[in-house]
Amino acid sequence: MQKSGVTFIINDRVDIAIASHADGVHLGRMISHPPCQKTSGEETIIGGSAGTLEEARTCLLEGADYIGFGPVYPTLSKEDAGPAAGLAS
Q1: Which of 81, 53, 88 is nearest to 67 (CA)?
Q2: What is the DSSP letter of 87?
């Protein structure tokens, strides 16, 4: 497969990430779920989600390569977004 010079991340679906030869998968808060662990010999990027500093620490301890943090500001676009963390977090 020819690489295009961009990083290709699949959201939530490990099976599709593997089948599509994606660079990684964003697992939200499910990083420690057994099927989500890195496969040996592959450099798969694994992303997590956090809404607090403690959740961010947990993501890192569970092996996240990057963390999507938020929401920073209140939002109406995602019903399960949780409370806004603000900029002081």
Answers
A1: 53
A2: S
pLDDT at 83 over 50: yes
Structure tokens at 29: 């808060």
- Supply the DSSP string of 10-76, one letter for each residue: EES-HHHHHHTT-SEEE-TT-TTSGGGSPPTT---EEEEEESSHHHHHHHHHTT-SEEEE--SS--S
CB 69 within 8 A of CB 85: yes
Neighbour order of strands in the sheet with 9-11:
9-11, 24-26, 45-50, 66-69
Under a CB-based contact definition with an 8 Å cutoff, are residues 23 and 47 in contact? Answer: no
What pTM, to 2 d.p., does this model score?
Answer: 0.77
